[in-house]
Every structure is written in structure tokens, then in C-alpha cells.
């Protein structure tokens, strides 16, 4: 049986999807290339997946201004701070979605995560720093099938 929080999350997710469909019909959604729209849908699905599974999401598309790149989602799972990269695909015929998080992407995510951690209160006190983890969420939107969302906790670490 779903908890009250999970029911609420499901209701909000359905409401957001409905509003997106209505906005699209009325031509009020921003025009963007299909691959970017696919990525946004995947990030939204990942956000609700985390919420349904007890995570507390504290940031979406976090960036520190002039730095290149962003962290798709930052969330707490209990006492663990998770930096989450979301990869969305509409086919399984090419490489896996998670394989797109290559060495350069991991380097960018680590740099952004270090910067994020420096912004936390008591950032200079090593004993106060939270336990951290880099996760990947893969989202597959395959024609005629239900969306597949998979969390890969601890997909990579601070070093290669």
C-alpha cells in the first residue's frame, strides 16, 4: 500500500503532466529541439521517482554561475547527499543511457559537487561534511511501452 506522501507525489506528477499536455495543445510550451524536450521529461520523471522513494530533492539543474555544466538533481537520502545525473533515451538500440556519463562528464560533475559542498554551512569543518554519493538515473521512453526509470546508486566515486 502506498504511503500518503507517495499518493501525494503521484497526484502532483499526474497534475504536472496534465498541465504540460494542456500547455502543449495551446502552444504555450517553449519550443525546443526534441532531444532537449526528451531530456526535460526524463529529469521530471527522475524527480518524481526520487520523491516517491523517500529522497528529499533540494536542487534541480544546479550550477554555480560561470561554471560549465550543471547537476541535474541534488537530493538527500537520509544522511547521504546524492548528486544525480539523469540520462534519458527513446531507444535501447545504441549504447546504454548510463554509458553517456563518460570520463569528462564525471569530471564536470565532481567539480560542480565540490563547489556545491563549499556552499554548505560549516563547509570548512571536515567532520560536518555529509556523506556523498554520485548516482545515475536512466529513463527509457520506448514507443508503446511504459516509461522505465532506474536508479544506479553510487554509479561512480570521487576518483576514476
TrEMBL record:
InterPro entries, from UniProt?
Answer: Restrct_endonuc-II-like, tRNA_endonuc-like_dom_sf, UPF0102_YraN-like
Source domain of life? Bacteria
As for family, the record states: Belongs to the UPF0102 family.
* Protein name, per record: UPF0102 protein ACFPT7_04205
Q: In which organism is this protein found?
A: Acidicapsa dinghuensis
Amino acid at each position: 500500500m502506498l504511503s500518503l506522501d507517495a499518493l501525494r507525489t503521484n497526484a502532483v506528477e499526474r497534475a504536472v503532466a496534465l498541465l504540460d499536455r494542456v500547455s502543449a495543445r495551446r502552444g504555450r510550451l517553449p519550443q525546443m529541439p526534441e532531444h532537449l524536450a526528451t531530456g526535460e521529461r526524463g529529469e521530471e520523471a527522475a524527480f518524481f521517482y526520487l520523491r516517491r522513494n523517500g529522497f528529499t530533492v533540494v536542487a534541480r539543474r544546479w550550477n554555480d554561475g560561470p561554471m560549465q555544466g550543471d547537476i541535474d538533481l541534488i537530493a538527500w537520502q537520509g544522511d547521504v547527499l546524492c548528486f544525480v545525473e539523469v540520462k534519458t533515451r527513446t531507444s535501447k538500440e545504441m549504447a546504454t543511457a548510463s554509458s553517456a556519463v563518460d570520463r569528462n562528464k564525471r569530471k564536470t560533475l565532481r567539480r560542480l559537487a565540490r563547489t556545491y559542498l563549499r556552499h554548505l554551512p560549516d563547509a570548512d569543518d571536515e567532520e560536518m561534511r555529509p556523506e556523498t554519493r554520485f548516482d545515475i538515473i536512466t529513463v527509457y521512453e520506448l514507443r508503446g511501452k511504459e516509461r522505465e526509470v532506474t536508479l544506479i546508486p553510487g554509479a561512480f566515486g570521487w576518483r576514476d
